[in-house]
Specification:
Two copies of one chain form a homodimer. Chain A is α/β, with parallel strands linked by helices and 264 residues long. Chain A contains ten helices and twelve strands. Chain A is globular and about 60 Å long. The relative contact order of chain A is 0.16. At the A-B interface, helix 3, strand 7, helix 7, helix 8 and strand 12 of A face helix 3, strand 7, helix 7, helix 8 and strand 12 of B. Strand 7 of chain A pairs antiparallel with strand 12 of chain B. Chains A, B: Keywords: Metal-binding.
């Protein structure tokens, strides 16, 4: 029996319930369309859209925006050659593109965080009541550097950025994926008894400088910055599992991205 | 004859004229106070405030905020141990702290950009009518990588982040210091005939992804990201020169900062 775009989206929305105040909308496509395959991505780049289409998928579930701004506003991009070519690819192929950002962060537990904890094999560290708080075994002898090394190995990152002392001992830490904003990141460090915040993306003049000052004051505070993509991408495996469970037989694949930047 | 804080600030404001709609305010101190020495910094960190005071300065001119947010709002930080200790240092020492952000960017030419072009020895590349546009000599054979290498050497940076192809040939490029926002950065790349944008700080889901897509479409576009601090810090030498010229005999020094982050 045919599965429609609308049915797949309903399955993704069901854990939260329909919301109106959300950026999670269909950027292209038709809810009545039959789905032949689903590509799950961190961000629908031009390159991965092509890969998804070539794989036979006609529905892309993307965590981050398609058109270079949080609201996917496009008026300001009218006539822009990059935007126009990307839109032409999407429209001419007929691929449906749905953003799944707000809903998945509202799953209980947060679907991105849960997926990242699984990818890092850190479920045992998590406090079930506070999923962004992680407590290490007492006898761990862990440091900021050893945690950074573990993340690099498990997520395939060649280096991370650190504020504070890499040799600082860590017993409890927080994991704030994505870019929740400086005040949210600083609240983590302030309100919870943690030595380390693992962050996705920051504004340099906000959390970075707060941690720099705290460390220079001799406080036991540090931060590891993974980059936005690496802090969330494997969290989208939660979507793959959900859809494979809901629609056995429907091809659903996670297409991973290279990072947008390289260090030279 | 005594020079007051107010007189120094008037000299910094004079090239633009007094504005009300600005973040450039006195965060601590008294305009009537006599100035014994001026410390010019990119950002008034806890550590550099201590260095400034130890050097005998009692006026700090800082380009970026003191309290971890653009407007230097402090209500949300009340009781925060990092904020309270930084504020106590500033208040107990009596050091005056003035932010010079909006005014210096409104100098003609932009004082930060002008200072950066001097630090990079790039004044000859600049279009006098468009100071953020730079044109290389025709026979240069320059690439993104060779420009990145030149910047690293001249600014003392060990690595930069690049979107697009490092081997892309570059004849014209733009230099957007600081964090002017994604739409402004993308407008540079769209509206001007440049291959390369040198940026300070970006949001990952905005300009980074625009350049990634453009490069994947085969367009001749690339971006080098310096980090906010490294893209502006030496631009504050403009302030040092202005104040030394205006107040001969007054000690005025630029105190440079280490970066807040290190790569491990």
């Amino acid at each position: 029996m045919a599965i429609t775009v609308g049915q797949v989206l309903d399955a993704l929305i069901a854990p939260v319930g329909k919301r109106e105040d959300t950026v999670d909308t269909l950027k292209n496509g038709n809810p009545e369309e039959e789905v032949r395959g689903v590509a799950v991505v961190f961000l629908a780049t031009y390159e991965v859209i092509g890969r998804a289409i070539a794989s036979g998928a006609n529905l892309i579930i993307t965590h981050e925006p398609t058109y270079y701004n949080h609201l996917d506003e496009t008026d300001w991009l009218s006539g822009d050659p990059v935007y126009e070519r990307k839109r032409a690819l999407i429209e001419s192929s007929g691929v449906a593109v749905f953003r799944l950002h707000d809903y998945i962060h509202q799953y209980k537990p947060d679907g991105i965080v849960d997926g990242m904890l699984r990818a890092l094999d850190w479920e045992a560290y998590a406090d079930p009541d506070k999923t962004l708080m992680l407590t290490l075994p007492e006898d761990g002898g862990r440091t900021v550097r050893s945690i950074a090394d573990e993340i690099k190995r498990k997520l395939g990152i060649d280096s991370v950025m650190v504020a504070g002392d890499p040799e600082l001992a860590v017993t409890r830490f927080g994991f704030a994926v994505g870019a929740p904003g400086g005040r949210s990141q600083m609240a983590y460090l302030r309100e919870r008894d943690i030595e380390l915040l693992i962050a996705g993306e920051t504004n340099e003049w906000e959390t970075n400088e707060y941690v720099r000052d705290a460390a220079d004051m001799g406080m036991n505070k540090a931060m590891i910055i993974l980059g936005h993509q690496k802090s969330e991408e494997l969290g989208m495996r939660t979507v793959v599992k959900l859809l494979r469970d809901a629609f056995p037989g429907l091809p659903v694949d996670h297409l991973e991205l290279p990072t947008a930047l390289r260090r030279i």
